[in-house]
Design brief:
Layout lengths: L1 E8 L8 H13 L6 E4 L3 E6 L4 H13 L6 E8 L14 H11 L1 H4 L3 E4 L3 H18 L4 H12 L5 H8 L3 H10 L2 H16 L6
Parallel strand pairs: 4-5
Antiparallel strand pairs: 1-3, 1-4, 2-3
């Protein structure tokens, strides 16, 4: 079982292209190998990650893109198998790719920018509600909030005082930015996702 995330940059032609360097860096950090991510058609991408890392990776990619003012990203998450792994990730096949594409294609219809699809409709229905609620916070991230979320995810074991030292900000400003981003609540969603995932028997 693998996770495939398919995404694109919202309104990429209307914003500063700094998002491209940020996206490339984020994909490199998130993928285990170079052939596990790909950018195509200029502003679209796919990445393969472990299924337990799906939500965290999506949050991280969103934060990395949103450090660029006015930039945002749409992503469809698919969990499933992989049948034919080719040199280009976008040319590989399997249910993970089908589900990811279906989740991505349904984003405009559902007027959201993040969704998940698996072979388990009840899981999808329940978790997509949580995702929509989390997007109320994530879609409103400003540049500073996105920067602090990105930094916190990259340094999960560090204290806020240590994050402040790295970022050159005061501890109070780091704390306020993470609070504004609802970082603790979003991390809780990731923990719940991992717990729910552990209860699914993917061998059935």
């Amino acid at each position: 079982m693998i996770c495939i995330i398919t995404g694109d940059i919202i309104g990429s032609r209307k914003i500063n292209e700094n998002w491209l360097l940020c996206l490339k860096s984020a994909l490199k950090v998130s993928a285990e190998k170079r052939d596990m991510w790909e950018i195509f058609r200029g502003d679209s991408f796919q990445i393969e990650v472990k299924i337990e890392e799906a939500i965290r990776t999506a949050i991280y990619l969103k934060a990395c893109v949103m450090v660029n003012k006015a930039a945002d990203v749409r992503m469809g998450i698919g969990l499933g198998d992989i049948k034919n792994k080719r040199k280009k990730l976008s040319e590989s096949t399997g249910n993970a790719f089908i589900y990811s594409g279906a989740a991505f294609d349904g984003l405009k219809r559902s007027k959201t920018n993040l969704a998940i699809k698996t072979a388990y409709p009840s899981f999808d229905e329940e978790f997509n509600v949580l995702i929509k609620l989390s997007l109320i916070a994530m879609n409103s991230w400003g540049v500073v909030a996105a920067e602090m979320v990105k930094l916190a995810l990259e340094n999960e074991k560090l204290l806020q005082s240590e994050l402040a030292a790295i970022s050159g900000r005061t501890q109070s400003s780091v704390s306020e930015a993470l609070k504004r981003a609802h970082y603790t609540d979003i991390v809780e969603m990731d923990k719940l996702y991992r717990k729910k995932l552990s209860q699914i028997d993917f061998t059935v």
